[in-house]
Amino acid sequence: MNAKHTKTITQLGVRYSGSGHSFTHTVGSDRLLVTFPNTVHASMSLISIVTGAIKVATSITGLGSKLWFLPTFLAAFAYYHYDLFDPEGRPINVKEVRPEYDFVVIGGGTAGAVIANRLTEMKGWNVLLLEAGGDEPEIADVPILSIYLHRSQLDWKYRTQPQDSACQAMVDKRCCWTRGKVLGGSSVLNTMLYIRGNRRDYDLWKRLGNPGWGFDDVLPYFKKAEDQRNPYLANDTKNHATGGYFTVQDAPWNTPLGIAFVEAGIEMGYEHRDVNGDKQTGFALFQYNMIRGYRVSSSKAYLRPVRLRKNLHIAMLSHVTKVLINPDTKRAFGVEFIRGGKKQVVRARKEVILSAGAIGTPQLLMLSGVGPAEHLQEKNIPVIHNAPGVGQNLQDHIAIGGIAFEIDYPISVLIDRVFNLNAALRYAVQGDGPLTSSIGLETVGFISTKYANQSDDWPDIEFMMTASTTSSDGGSQSRKAHCITQKFYDEYFATISKKDVFGIFPMMLRPKSRGYVKLRTNDPLDHPLLYHNYLTHPDDVRVMREGIKAAVSVGETTAMKRFGTKFHRKPVPGCQGYELFTDEYWECVARQYTMTIYHMSATAKMGPADDPLAVVDHELNVHGIQGLRVIDASIMPTITSGNINAPVNMIAEKGADMIKETWRPRKNKREKRMLFKESTGVKSADSSKTRKQS
Ligand SMILES: Cc1cc2nc3c(=O)[nH]c(=O)nc-3n(C[C@H](O)[C@H](O)[C@H](O)COP(=O)(O)OP(=O)(O)OC[C@H]3O[C@@H](n4cnc5c(N)ncnc54)[C@H](O)[C@@H]3O)c2cc1C
Q1: Beta-bridge partners for 462
Q2: What percentage of the chain exceeds 90 in pLDDT?
Q3: Which residues of the chain have pLDDT under 70?
Q4: What is 91-136+182-251+286-393+599-666's CATH topology?
Q5: Which one from 397, 599, 618, 623 is the annotated catalytic residue?
Q6: Which ligand 1 atom sits closest to the C-alpha of 632?
Q7: CA-CA distances (angstroms) from residue 16 to 1, 11, 19, 34?
């Protein structure tokens, strides 16, 4: 063993014992002998990878001392999965950006990564992907650690403006809106839940004046992206597919609570079903964007496999400040960005594609002169196109935090219980065990309250059922991620802190309240002003209240009672003045621990030109501007009924095909049908009738 190896082992906090490939690790009373297979030899590159992993653990989260087991864990993980850590496998961060590309994509998140991949399938085209953040760290691979990424360097750390209608339990009454600032965007920090939404969501988009966006039109794109690893689901070829970039798998590990939740749903009269299949109403174990227990971000799925394409340039740590638009021709011709402290300009021969997410995209449109004219003038920004809808129509899913149930058995996901060396090694070696848990999220239930049409399959509440709650880590991280005040935590959670519990987050699926994004200043580095407006529509309050009541009743089922389940009846701080469990009380509760599910969307909505708030048309071109499309969560006219990462991925797959169709030499109808089939595996598409040359 050479000096560098010895040093690395020492840095890991492990004591090397013997020649060959074993070492002992001592933490407190735990002593462990780790033996590496003789056939595998630690190489110099592996050592540097391990060292990198440790640096990441401590620098990204600043939590080195709290997550004491991480270095060993990452070392073992890196050893067994060194192919994943191999710097050769990572996207290449170009040193120099050329003066001109065919396409410039802004934002390498869920959508941007797909666009960059699909456009560079065209050999004659070249693409620059600009991303404000850096590459994703290894720590993000580990599902249970996602909560530690909130408020870290990988997060834009947005806070909403204080408002009386919600988030009253948060520091300064401001919700924390986590968004990924990293290659892979929010898909690097999310909980990987794979939900497509309801067929009626997309049929509504179509009815709102968006041809080509009905469910039958978008299903081929969900399938194009999908690599379904559950053989039972994969057999349902009407709804699922294998071989796509985006891997979907079952949880490698669940607590006994996961199945019990499904049983509770059945007891309540719901069916156990594939909620991404023919019908949505019902209960199921969650499906995740994971592969063998580690996260599949959009960057891992779509950028790593094509990193060697010569026509793809990725420039990380590049903060875009403006889309350059000729005020006379109203054509986007380039992008201005700051990299390494230097302002740079790059030109786009064909198109600029904005994929900066539901906050970044409207901010950039406004900074570039496309937005509500009065607001832009107020901020001294020359108006290129008056687009009143930019930043408006903001939608998000909220749930209520703190709906918790104590149980008598030591089976929940308690952080102190699951963060141990056995779990770490089980994860590292086998890719399963408690560290693959998406912070306890195990089961999904779609239910209809009395405010939804009961005879229809369009539920208005999603239960996110967890084998944990905010207090499962003793308030050390979840509380901070959600920006809950220490006082609220102490008053409400103290008696169940670090105790065995399960939780249910009732999430309202189709909110009627609308928020908005405005510029704070014309400085592109300033965060915009964010107004959530949660629970300002009275119907939302009603649905939320019923959702909470339904969640509480889950604790009364025999399936859950057998764990000795007791609802945590502690009056919610701020609501002590109300009689417990009345409608007024639940409304008050909803306004305290109002939990964003991080599905900000719809701030540059798609719609026909005669819709005053529409920002893009059905081919995602910005109305009134040439050569500029928006492709990300912003374009949703209405939020989908479920977690939105899979829908954003679908939007990007479809958007990429639209770009291809625009710039490919003109085809006749038959050739177009063949191209659609080539792209999606599906025979024909009526959407092709509506395509036009932009
Ligand atoms: C904590 C969390 C948990 C979630 N859990 C789930 C879940 O379990 N399931 C689910 O379906 N959905 C989940 N979501 C939502 C889902 O991940 C997002 O809706 C989705 O990733 C949005 O994709 P996007 O492409 O619109 O934006 P993003 O993925 O956020 O990408 C935008 C990208 O643009 C970059 N960018 C922004 N501004 C600039 C600029 N000026 N210059 C350069 N680059 C810029 C950003 O850094 C980012 O990389 C979660 C989200 C979060 C944050």
Answers
A1: 446, 507
A2: 81
A3: 1-69, 71-72, 77-88, 684-694
A4: FAD/NAD(P)-binding domain (3.50.50)
A5: 599
A6: 26
A7: 10, 11, 9, 10
